[in-house]
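Extended Data, panel c. Modelled sequence:
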Amino acid sequence: MLISFGKKIITPPVGTKVAGYGTDDVSVAKLDELYLSALCLDDGSRRVLIISYDLLGLDEKYIKRLRRQVAEILGASEAAVIISCTHTHSGPNSRTLERCPEILEKEYLEELLGWTAAAVRELLDKPFLDTEVYFYSQNCDQNVNRRYIGPENSCSFLPHRRDMERIADGICDKELGGLCFFDKTSHKPVYVIGNYAAHPLAGHCPGIGGHRISADYPGAFREYIEAEVGAGCMFISGAAGDMAPRGHETGVAAIRRVGQALAQAAIDSMVLARRDANSFKLKNESLQCGIRKVTVKVRPGHALQPDYTGRSTVDLEMQLVSLGDICLVGVPGELLAELGLEIKWHSPFRKTFILYCSTGYFNYLCHGNALVSGGYEGNQQALESRTGLKLVNAAVEEAYELRARAFPDQPDYPDSARSELVSLKNTMS
């Protein structure tokens, strides 16, 4: 696999309002830089570009503009350009809120379009590296489900009931997944992607911490990888809609503890993957991509952003990119972890990773019962109760389409998985 990568600072000036909590929180300091991280993959017949932004989210119209301009530079289809936002709560107001659309930093977003185009052109002008691709996966206990559901099926929102966190037992996606690219000549790691589900609000504490520009723990993850491994690094948030980092909202120490713990696990996984190349090295590096639209109704009594005023239905996009037997699934907002796990469980790929706030920003996207139990996320969802189910089905159907193209002789699941099951059965008998 040929790759080229780069990053660019996208930090707004101190004095910019920070997103994620109040609408008038003016930043008074900068803890660290915000970045866009970009990686171009070339399998010899197709190019794909992945971009991760240290932003809370982006409106659908800006994502489509970004995809279109990058696709033109890349000379590829828009489906070959997949975007994600880490969802840091300590960046600028980069997405619209239906209750206060005037907070959107429009001038900043226009600059972001230019920064992105420049970053992509720069990485395409560099020599591409010939690499071997390894995947990894490891459970990391750095998150908690912030929705506590009582026996009567009603939700308590843990950020408002911190005393209940010790009994939190909700479903969590604790998988730290990712990809590592090793130079074919030097065999050194040159690029690392990490994927994990937890709201980046570890450092958003009362006072200074809530008025400080920061990439939060994804920035600490990248910094540790870059310093210790010497490789480029991208962090992609998973389905973090109801996932909070442990020790959330407590400041810099929480940022470093969560980010470095995940980074150390990623390095450990790289070591293990290299020692078992037969299991973790991708043999098929085919790139495939696709976008599947899902039409859903607006939930009665709820409103979307002004761009959708008067609409009774909206079209959401599920965008998928596969690299061999690894699939990336871009979702249009804040998907709850349960739905992300459903996609992973039903996926025909060996590993599937969710890209948060990828194709638009439509607030929280819940499973149907979250609307029954209520709580912050369920009450915020503006789309019909079947939205989550429709998104899962669309993602899985598109995943099977991509797998059939990448593995025409194994369209449903890997032959190696079948043979391993047979071997295990024979051993047990």
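The first helix runs from residue 60 to 74. This feature is highlighted in the accompanying rendering.
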